[in-house]
TrEMBL record:
<protein>
    <recommendedName>
        <fullName>RRM domain-containing protein</fullName>
    </recommendedName>
</protein>
<feature type="region of interest" description="Disordered">
    <location>
        <begin position="1"/>
        <end position="23"/>
    </location>
</feature>
<keyword id="KW-0694">RNA-binding</keyword>
<dbReference type="InterPro" id="IPR035979">
    <property type="entry name" value="RBD_domain_sf"/>
</dbReference>
<feature type="domain" description="RRM">
    <location>
        <begin position="24"/>
        <end position="102"/>
    </location>
</feature>
<dbReference type="GO" id="GO:0003723">
    <property type="term" value="F:RNA binding"/>
</dbReference>
<dbReference type="InterPro" id="IPR012677">
    <property type="entry name" value="Nucleotide-bd_a/b_plait_sf"/>
</dbReference>
<feature type="compositionally biased region" description="Pro residues">
    <location>
        <begin position="10"/>
        <end position="21"/>
    </location>
</feature>
<dbReference type="Pfam" id="PF00076">
    <property type="entry name" value="RRM_1"/>
</dbReference>
<dbReference type="InterPro" id="IPR000504">
    <property type="entry name" value="RRM_dom"/>
</dbReference>
């Protein structure tokens, strides 16, 4: 278990080629808390090749009632969504399945009010590829273009960086706010 989730695959050993295209991931909700990959994977494999399953877990080792399943392509994901939504996984237990929503927003807190939108955008672009826009306000949001492959994701973790701020995580390499914005006198 890592970051509250357990992974199966991603990519599987026999995978050849790039990761699946956007739109290949589904959200599977309303899972019984004692259901695990040994039941979910065979069920999902009926609809196509599975690239990865991410099951959200609590600290007691039970699932949190939902998982994300990435298929080899969009068509397989769409077929799984159609067939698995309202599927009775156990007596009286219906799954809730829909398309996974790309989470391409990053919250950045603790930025001085004196920083202009353009300055924040320039600093973010120095350390992160794919920054599309910065929404100025309270809170400030940074919209990222979804990377083509998982290896190019960036993981933002809590860090003080001299500002006591935090960056929300997306995936992989870490930065703190102090690396994004230079210190100013105070």
């Amino acid at each position: 278990q890592e970051n509250g989730q357990r992974r199966y695959g991603g990519p599987p050993p026999s995978w050849d080629g790039p990761p699946p295209e956007r739109g290949s991931e589904i959200f599977v909700g309303k899972l019984p808390r004692d259901l695990f990959e040994d039941e979910l994977v065979p069920l999902c494999e009926k609809f196509g090749r599975i690239y990865e399953v991410r099951m959200m877990m609590d600290f007691n080792g039970n699932n949190r009632g939902y998982a994300f399943v990435t298929f080899g392509n969009k068509m397989e994901a769409k077929a799984a969504m159609k067939q698995l939504n309202n599927y009775e996984i156990r007596s009286g237990r219906l799954l809730g399945v829909c398309a996974s929503v790309d989470n391409c927003r990053l919250f950045v807190g603790g930025i001085p009010k004196t920083k202009k939108r353009e300055e924040i955008l320039a600093e973010m672009r120095k350390v992160t590829d794919g920054v599309v826009d910065v929404v100025d306000g309270s809170p400030i949001e940074v919209t990222l273009a979804k990377p083509v492959d998982k290896d190019s994701y960036v993981r933002y973790t809590r860090g003080t960086g001299g500002r006591g701020a935090s960056l929300l995580q997306t995936d992989y390499a870490a930065y703190t706010l102090g690396q994004v914005l230079p210190r100013t006198g105070s």
